[in-house]
Amino acid sequence: MIQKTNAARLLDAAGIQYKLVPYEVDEDHLEASHVAEQLGEDIDTVFKTLVLRGDRSGLFVCVMPGSMEVDLKVAARISENKSCEMIHVKELLPLTGYIRGGCSPIGMKKPLPTFIHESALLYDSIFISAGQRGLQLQISPTDLINYIGAEIYPL
Length: 155
Description:
The chain is α/β, with parallel strands linked by helices. It contains 5 helices and 8 strands.
């Protein structure tokens, strides 16, 4: 039986439908391409959650397809910063409550401004981390966006 994560419990409490989808973890390959391969899904439906720090706004989150790399200029612009950078991996757990390869945009220690790539709306459902390595949430992008109060961003 799959153990429910905090992210799943929060969705349950909000009455939002989702599916928990386990996959085999490879500690040497935590990237979205490995997850997509394990799930047998298109890499563009497997979204990664990246936490960044802006020079003005502080922390914010970008949720984007696994095939994309974050463009720091775009990330700064959409978050109303002059510049931004990815947080250091060792800051991830204390700031979000999540570890690399298991960071979910749902249920972070405190809500952060979140931007979801517009391509999410092309799909009936997308995959995001359920909050631990080896478990993904399959969810409607619209439900996710509405639940976490995310903004859509274009390329």
